[in-house]
Design goal:
298 residues, two-stranded antiparallel ribbon
Length: 298
């Protein structure tokens, strides 16, 4: 059977744009994960749970404020802040006492934290689906080469480069970013210079988790908000981090592009088995680049 028989160039380009908008969500979530992984050496399995909490908070805040345009923008702003506050309390209350423990113990702790967050979401929001409608000006679609393209997807395409630029400025142009990069290489040396490494770790952890919350906030208008949405995203985020290079933010961007675009192409070429395409891409990358596409900080 010729699965690509009805594929046109215009349809292919449209699907690529859709894949790029999905890449934005993947990159935002994966960049937060790789930031924490690169500096703190913590494989934070609960990262996906914070993404889920960000989506639920966005819905709750938007509805509480009336569901208008202003409510939507405030929800996009306040939900990641709420996730950042939760992560700060967790980091200062528990994580800061565990940094010297083995990676396996940290992995098990974050797994337990994921289960706690899952029960917390069920207790607060229940098990019903939620859905959030974006403002009117982000609803509907406009025409690209005669084919419709959702306005909200265009909004995501704008947000992605903004977040990437912001992360680059943070890691390369700010004092805390430079200290974090140094701590990722040699935390003992940074501590010997009189810098409180614990608070540097706290700042990095909060920023990374805030990005997970931002990803959840941005994805809320595009899909049902429900329990279990954390499980798929954390698997994808870890795969992206691995193929991009552990702790490498630009690697996370490259990995997100590969994952998002192969998923979009799979939907176009062979919809019944579209889920296989990104995982085939991951396996192919790891065969030829077992350490990841870009330099790892580990």
């Amino acid at each position: 059977m010729d699965f690509a028989a009805n594929i046109t160039l215009v349809g292919f380009l449209q699907q690529i744009l859709v894949g790029l908008s999905r890449t934005t969500i993947l990159f935002i979530v994966a960049s937060g994960l790789t930031l924490v992984l690169g500096v703190l050496r913590i494989p934070n399995v609960a990262h996906g749970s914070l993404y889920m909490i960000g989506a639920f908070l966005t819905y709750t805040i938007a509805m509480a404020l009336g569901g208008g345009v202003a409510a939507f923008w405030l929800a996009l702003l306040l939900a990641p802040v709420g996730v950042a506050l939760i992560s700060f309390l967790v980091e200062r209350g528990i994580f800061c006492h565990l940094y010297e423990r083995e990676h396996l113990m940290l992995l098990l702790f974050t797994f337990a934290l994921m289960l706690v967050f899952g029960d917390l979401v069920k207790f607060v929001w229940g098990s019903d689906y939620r859905s959030l409608t974006p403002p009117v000006f982000l609803q509907g679609s406009f025409s690209i080469l005669g084919l419709p393209f959702p306005r909200y997807n265009l909004f995501l395409l704008i947000i992605g480069p903004v977040v990437a630029l912001g992360l680059w400025l943070f890691t390369n142009k700010t004092l805390i970013g430079k200290i974090a990069r140094a701590a990722a290489v040699d935390r003992e040396m940074v501590g010997a210079m009189g810098i409180n490494v614990s608070w540097v770790f706290a700042a990095v952890f909060v920023i990374g988790c805030c990005l997970a919350g931002l990803g959840g906030a941005l994805v809320a208008p595009t899909q049902n908000i429900t329990q279990g949405m954390d499980q798929a995203i954390i698997i994808e985020a870890f795969l992206i981090v691995i193929i991009g290079g552990l702790g490498n933010i630009w690697g996370a961007l490259l990995g997100s592009l590969i994952f998002g675009l192969t998923d979009a192409i799979g939907i176009l070429v062979w919809p019944q088995f579209a889920i296989v395409f990104p995982y085939m891409a991951v396996v192919t990358v790891l065969i030829f680049f077992p350490q990841g596409l870009l330099k790892s900080t580990w």
